[in-house]
Amino acid sequence: MAASAGTTPEAGRSVNADNREIEVFLSAPPGRRLRTIASRCRQWGVAVTDLGLRRVRDVYVDTPDCRLLLAGMACRIRRYADRSELTLKGIISERSDVAARREITSNLPAAGLPLSELAARLPARLRRRVGREPLHVLFRVNQARHVHRLALSQGTSLVLSIDSVVIVSGCRRRRVSGVEIELHRGRIEDLVAFAARLRRNFGLRRSRTSKFEKGLRLAGLSWRLRAAEEERRAG
């Protein structure tokens, strides 16, 4: 049986009934024009719904000794124009052909929360792991996302985001552009095939590292991620 995902109420969310986000990241060479992707999709017979431009500010947090990371989770505070949310996401994908990670999201006050109050919002297992250690900012990610809902002829629904990203750690910055394709409903095989078609037609390549991993590298914390991955696989 083909693997599949279901829907969630919020437009653009792509987490299935098991709280697993399933997506593919495609990176673009500098200067590559990506805004024509939607029109090309229409030429391919894909029904495209423009969900607009979304400006998103992300802050990734952990304890100074990265206890959440060592527990296998990335902790992200995301701020939109009118709301904020807390997301905990697994750091290891369950598949090799797509990024398939467990994700748990809860709403925060629109203005966010002080970091001193954020630990109380974590699940009990992670609160025990954090203990009395304070949470602090690892790095920030600012994104401008042109978002589209795609309905493929096979009945699969995808959410495609054309992203312009700036990752910030202290005085260091890294700019990244590319395409994120999330499975909203349907078969993972359709997502993989569609991503391959985009790669061929737009000269993109599959990115093996997420924005979280790129942020850790910019912050000089890649070794923490490697240690966490080794601990999770050993355990």
Describe what this molecule looks like in 3D.
The protein has 235 residues and is α+β, with helices and mostly antiparallel strands. It has one domain: Hypothetical Protein Pfu-838710-001. The chain is 25% helix and 41% strand. It has helices spanning 37-43, 67-70, 115-118, 124-130, 188-202, 211-218, 222-234, and strands at 4-5, 20-27, 47-62, 73-79, 84-90, 99-108, 136-151, 157-169, 172-187, 205-206. It has an eight-stranded antiparallel β-barrel with strand order 2-6-5-4-3-7-8-9. A hairpin with an 8-residue loop joins strand 5 and strand 6. Helix 6 (211-218) crosses helix 7 (222-234). The chain starts with a strand and ends with a helix.
Estimate the strand proportion. Answer: 35-45%
Compute the number of strand runs.
10
Query: What CATH architecture label applies?
Result: Beta Barrel
Q: Given the C-alpha coordinates, what overall shape results?
A: globular
Distance between the termini: 29 Å
Give the number of domains.
Answer: 1
- The CATH class, by name, is Mainly Beta
| Radius of gyration computed on alpha carbons | 18 Å
The CATH superfamily appears as Hypothetical Protein Pfu-838710-001
Specify the helix fraction band. Answer: 10-25%
Tally of helical segments: 7
CATH topology descriptor: Hypothetical Protein Pfu-838710-001
List the helices and strands and how they pair.
Layout: E1 4-5, E2 20-27, H1 37-43, E3 47-62, H2 67-70, E4 73-79, E5 84-90, E6 99-108, H3 115-118, H4 124-130, E7 136-151, E8 157-169, E9 172-187, H5 188-202, E10 205-206, H6 211-218, H7 222-234
Antiparallel strand pairs: 1-9, 2-6, 2-9, 2-10, 3-4, 3-7, 4-5, 5-6, 7-8, 8-9
Helix pairs in contact: 6-7
